[in-house]
Amino acid sequence: MNSDQRLLRELEHIKSFKSFDVDQEWEQFLTIAESSESSKNESDNIRRLSWRAIMAVAASVIILVGLFSLFRTGENVSQPQILVEEKVVIPETELAAVEAAGQNDVTDEPPYPITAASVTEQNAIVSNEIPGGLTVKDHEQFLHTVTKYDLKMDDGTVIAFEPGSEAIVLKKFEGAEERSVRMISGSAIFDVESNDRAPFKIYTENAGIKVLGTVFRVDTKMSNTRVENIEGQVMFYALSMTDDYKVLNQGDIVEYDGKQFALLQEGGPDFVAKNVSELTIKSAPSKLNIPDNPKLMNLQELHERVERHNYTMKGLSSLLKQFAKNKVIVDSKEVLKQDFTNEQTLFIPVDYLYSDNENLLPLLVFLDDVIDISYVKSDKCENCYQILSLGY
Amino acid sequence: MSKIFNSNETFEGIFKQYFNPLVNFVNSHINNWEDSREIVQNSFMKIWRSKDKVEINTSVKAYLYQTTRNGMIDFIRSSKKDATIKETLLHQSQNFREEERLDSMIIRDEINKALARLKPKNKRIFELSKMEGLTHKEIAAHLNISVRSVEDNINRATNLLKEMLEETSNIYG
After folding, report:
1. In terms of CA atoms, which chain B residue is nearest residue A237?
2. Any domain includes B110
3. Are residues B77 and B1 in the same domain?
4. ipTM over 0.85
5. Which residues contact A388 (CB under 8 A, 6 or more apart)?
6. How many CB contacts within 8 angstroms connect chain A with chain B?
7. Which of A1, A286, B96, B100 has the most beta carbons within 10 angstroms of its beta carbon?
8. Contact residues, chain B, for A239 at CB < 8 Å
9. pLDDT for B78-124, tens place per residue?
């Protein structure tokens, strides 16, 4: 974009730019900074005094504990504090039967399903505290699997855990605003039931995975999280406040070590739509209800804001607006929602799918929460994005 | 790496240079001027408190952007907004292109400063043309001057702003 274009673009927004008196702001800042500096010095002095007092108390406690241990008799006081791994005791009869069949670690239906309830029954977990300081809330369950185990959730989602995995999962996915799984360690394959209203997210120590598609595997080991996408799309992101995230396509394997993402295997190219002028509406009719849906009201507001600029965005935003109204215009002919088939394909001029309008990305991000949409950064222009799929 | 914040004079310069773009950047997300001002003041305060220790291995702009954005995200998280709105705001604030939004705010701030330097009549003509969308003829009739004079004024202002814009992009990269 040359300087003329840039100037014109920024001039369009100049009215909404508000200038504060920076001299006055600086004076105000200095006043606060100086007062906070003096109070900091005071608190430093207090802290120094308190530190001495804490040290004195700590020394007394150490002496008392030492004396106490000297007086203890008949006990093994020097026994180190070892955290014994919590294991589930499988009834011997069932274990023997499984071992005899030679499939104690490969069964689809484990002989002894390991759930929070069964773990608790075996007294393996004595509190809600999980090693590492994580807490299991009332509506969650902690799982430690010793065999392969398929956790079938009430919404149809299946999580196939590998032996030795640990995770905290909601007890019920139906009705949850967000279907979340905290993977503590181990490996699992997620076959996620689609639900626009409740996003599915997996959290590991330092990364998050947002499900955009259906089937994928997550492995966690220490600070490393590896995601293998088997079908559909997933968004894999760092939990720290960096902008780091990757969208994995079918076959991609990406690892995050707490600092950066590494693409270990690139999936097949077939997954990405070859002809972007073909947009497939996956299902109809829309579940969206305009008057009752605050997201959509915001969407309309956003749409109006975008449309006021009257850029090439118009085509796309107009199409999206039509989506929200449960109808789509194809070649100037209105297609009503009852005309949709499950896999109807729309042909839309490619020009509409690329835009360097600065409002495009916020709109796409916003739409991501409202309808089923996937997009990637395009190299066509500086701010261009390519819409891969749209649906609702 | 530089310890750019260890001089009061430099800190004041940076504060005054970035305050308005940062407040406008935050406001573009949370849509509340008073909260936006407070978030930016607090971000500068955070930097001020550690100004002797802070080492910047990126640009000052990137550092300020990161600190302010973190402050904004903390604010959104702790706000009493509806969970959906919160998530949307957080989602938006984590976009790849967010830093460019700050660049736009810097340019808008510079445009405002440049406009303030124009003679009142020149500024008025430029605003009527570029911001109000009036044609040269309409402006001429409105101000009772010739169309030629309108064009001259607009060209003068445009050239000044373009120079400013080039200067700004050299300074901020």
Report:
1. B94
2. no
3. yes
4. no
5. A272, A273, A276, A374, A375, A376
6. 109
7. A286
8. none
9. 776 666 666 666 666 555 466 777 888 888 888 888 888 888 888 88
